[in-house]
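For practice. Any example?
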Amino acid sequence: MTQSTEPGKIWLTKDAFEKLSAELEELKGPVRADVIERISNARDEGDLKENGGYHAAREEQGRIEGRIRQLEDMLRRAEIGETPPDDGVVEPGMKVTYKFVGDDDDEAETFLLGAREIEDSVEDLKVYSPQSPLGQAINGASRGDTVSYEAPNGKMLEVVILDAVPYTM
């Protein structure tokens, strides 16, 4: 898989891209139309100052429009990735198992390296972005490597990569 080094790119599986595209179309179509109709109906009731239905519909409209902008931006920046090779090298699309240096193997954690936005489409697996501190530190490292990174709290942490395998749905 060719991984873009361009900042701002978001790695997505084809399935995640399709799900997010479908969500966008649903929001731009029937969901948006329903909220606009509810706002119109509430407006027809008269006094807007104390019209709870109107204010609730306007708040929902704001949330929907925000999500539409987020999805449009994400899909514009999306890089649809094929399953990476099973070579033990960490890259977006890999399911990574790691532990902190000094921890027992039974304290290992597993996550998918990819866009955080796909977390809903990945069952029972956390998703870390390649732009996160841990993601940046391990991207390109191999099974068995020990890497250091600075946590958001400023503390330096060391992790051992126990496994890196392609994620499959």
